[in-house]
Design brief:
With 674 residues, the protein is mainly beta. The protein is 11% helix and 28% strand.
């Protein structure tokens, strides 16, 4: 248990979400320098700010729960009054509370829950009679990325949501029968993937209901066929006994965060894919993703499907077919989803696209593991504006070709001033410059000794080779559509020691995480950037090494373990968290942070999720007074017999005829002004 507590998750989540990756040897054993080793002659603060200025470029409802309005934080000032989301920050909610809390004047309801049927003829969730066929037609399990893509009227939309992993202990009572366990494994496969669901509502600003048998409704599972695009497609590293062409992959797994492209498709990152395989770990490429071998996978998929046994020579490459950015067209349920090899293979948190000044599509991507890297992809082709069929066809190919880069950060303070305590350097800020180091150029490898397909399939090895900067678990990284600055959530890194602190990762044993603000100084598709730390997270009442862009610490909401980020129409940053209870003792939540003016850095908590849950995939539609989040793994430490959460149904007993259950259910939640 003690080893788990060093991280941000419970042992249950560590096992099922990432296969206990934190308990094994560190994957990144490269000798890549930290800032302490590579700090160049310090730039003056004024010079850095000059760089930043030059680079900035303008630009059916489920059972409705009680309102659950939380108490306002003591002294918490109202803010955001000029937008459609004025609120008083809620007080932090203790981690034992099983409520979904929102500010006074707001209410909430689930849009859809695990097990809700997408098609007529599919049963509602029935704990005692769940089947593969039912799950394949029901909304899947733990959701991370979401988006609400409204149609022109604003009264219809599609919800796009991915399903990252499952918790068997909350789906079934214990069993030791091999046949029953194999049956369950097939259900777990069907609970992964994606759901696309049509929505309806009466008018703007009102809650949605999901539509059974919607024209665009779709379930994508671990058995849905994906097409591989880009330079690695068809190469020997992608071929298996079941796919000698190396171009067609069954399924997507471990999907974490994502993004919606300017052309209307959705992206998702395959993150902790390694735990799904019985793993050999006998090559440098394999060890860079999981350092130790395993004889069985987390969910024992290899018992029912031979491709999950990577010890089998015929399926040695099957793990190479996961760890990609996937692209799905939510408007066309007959389309074939794709995995884009040009964007590199690693433990993708997600990908978020902005169109650069020169028209290229630029995607930012974090590799979510301690001491791994930040990446950027720049498309070969350029974006075609407009909504014509021709423009859309052209844009659908943008992520198939292009170049992959990895970030190297340099601090501008003397190494002696970065003490590991979080104390600011003499210039008053953790900041510096950086460069994007190419791994491919014109679609070809520029890493000595590695072919193009090797660079892409083993992107971590390629990044090691060029001296990328080891970061404190890069999670979501998104460009602000209003200012074009880029915000990187670094969720935490307990293994950061005094010997390897640097100016961008300046806290030893960093359990609370931090946020970096980046400014591209040569255009969005360029190769240089400036950066500064916006937030050093934590509870200011307890943690001395907190920093909130200079805003008074005593006025902010405690925040720990930043995970996903989003923006409202005014350019404010919204942060969802994953792991706050294990560090600061409060339930995870959603927080708003102004980025400009006197309120810059003023962290204010908007909502909190139920006990043992994670806040995911925030979507902020502030102009109509709506906020959406996914609640992942509520009550994760309980069981079917003894649940620790009853979110979101909050009923005393199962009601199979209505689909309500007395157990926790991962759900997509909408919040609106009452």
């Amino acid at each position: 248990m003690a080893d788990h507590v060093r991280g941000k998750r419970s042992p249950v989540t560590c096992h099922f979400k990432c296969g206990n990756a934190c308990l094994g040897p560190e994957c990144n054993t490269s000798a890549n320098p930290h800032f302490r080793d590579i700090a160049s002659a310090a730039l003056t603060r004024r010079a850095l700010l000059g760089l930043g200025a030059a680079g900035a470029v303008g630009i059916a409802l489920a059972a409705v729960a009680p309102a659950g309005s939380a108490t306002a934080a003591p002294g918490g000032a109202a803010f955001g009054r000029g937008s459609g989301l004025p609120f008083d920050a809620i007080a932090p909610v203790p981690g034992v509370v099983d409520d979904f809390n929102v500010p006074a004047g707001y209410t909430w309801a689930p849009i859809i829950r695990w097990g809700d049927p997408l098609f007529s003829g599919v049963p509602a969730l029935d704990f005692d009679h769940q089947t593969v066929e039912a799950q394949a037609g029901q909304f899947g399990y733990n959701v991370d990325y979401i988006d609400i893509l409204a149609d022109q009227s604003g009264r219809t939309a599609v919800l796009a949501a991915n399903h990252e992993y499952v918790n068997p202990g909350l789906m079934f009572t214990p069993s030791s029968d091999p046949a029953e366990l194999d049956r369950r494994a097939a259900i777990y496969k069907a609970a992964h993937g994606f759901s696309v669901v049509e929505l309806r509502r009466s008018k703007l600003g009102q809650p949605w209901r999901y539509l059974v048998d919607g024209r665009r409704n779709r379930r994508i599972t671990a058995d849905t066929v994906f097409e591989v695009t880009g330079p690695a497609a068809g190469t020997d590293l992608m071929k298996t006994a079941a796919d000698p062409e190396g171009r067609w992959v069954k399924g997507t797994l471990g999907n974490c965060a994502g993004g919606t492209t300017p052309w209307g498709t959705v992206l998702s990152g395959e993150e902790n894919f390694d735990g799904y395989f019985a793993w050999a770990a006998d090559t440098a490429g394999q060890k860079r993703y999981r350092a130790t071998p395993s004889s069985a996978s987390t969910y024992t998929f290899e018992r029912i499907d031979p491709r999950f046994d990577a010890h089998d020579a015929g399926y040695l490459n099957e793990p190479n077919r996961f760890g990609w950015i996937v692209e799905i067209d939510p408007q066309d349920p007959s389309s074939t989803p794709r995995k884009h090899s040009a964007m590199g293979r690693f433990k993708h948190e997600g990908a978020n696209v902005i169109i650069a000044e020169d028209g290229h599509a630029v995607a930012y991507m974090g590799d979510d593991q301690a001491n791994d890297y930040l990446y950027k992809f720049v498309s070969k082709g350029t974006f075609t504006p407009g909504k014509s069929a021709k423009a859309r066809r052209s844009n659908l190919d943008l992520l198939s070709e292009g170049d992959l880069y990895v970030a190297r950060f340099t601090g501008n303070s003397p190494a002696a001033e970065v003490t590991g305590s979080g104390a600011l350097p003499a210039d008053g800020q953790f900041d510096g410059t950086g460069e994007w180091i190419p791994l491919t150029r014109n679609g070809e490898s520029v890493v000595p000794g590695m072919t193009t397909e090797e660079v892409l399939v083993f992107a971590r090895l390629a990044a090691d080779a060029v001296g990328a900067t080891k970061m404190d678990r890069p999670e979501d990284v998104e460009p602000n559509p209003k200012t074009r600055k880029v915000y990187l959530a670094l969720t935490n890194n307990s293994s950061r020691t005094l010997a390897n602190v640097d100016e961008a990762n300046p806290v030893t044993g960093n359990r609370n995480g931090h946020i970096i603000e980046m400014t591209e100084t040569a255009g969005q598709s360029g190769s240089t950037f400036g950066w500064n730390i916006l937030l050093l997270c934590g509870d200011p009442a307890v943690d001395q090494n907190t920093y909130f862009a200079g805003f008074p610490k005593e006025l902010v909401s405690p925040i720990s373990c930043p995970d996903n980020v989003a923006f409202d129409s005014e350019g404010n940053l919204w942060i969802s968290t994953d792991g706050a209870p294990s560090k600061i003792g409060f339930n995870d939540g959603l927080f708003k942070v102004p980025l400009e003016g006197p309120e810059r850095g003023h962290v204010q908590q908007f909502l909190s999720v139920p006990r043992e849950g994670e806040t995911c995939g925030p979507v902020i539609h502030d102009q109509e007074g709506m906020v959406y989040v996914a609640v992942q793994h509520p009550g994760e430490n309980g069981s079917v017999a003894t649940p620790t959460s009853h979110f979101p149904d909050y009923v005393p007993a199962h009601r199979p005829e209505t689909g309500l259950v007395a157990a926790p259910r991962p759900s997509v939640v909408q919040v609106w002004r009452a």
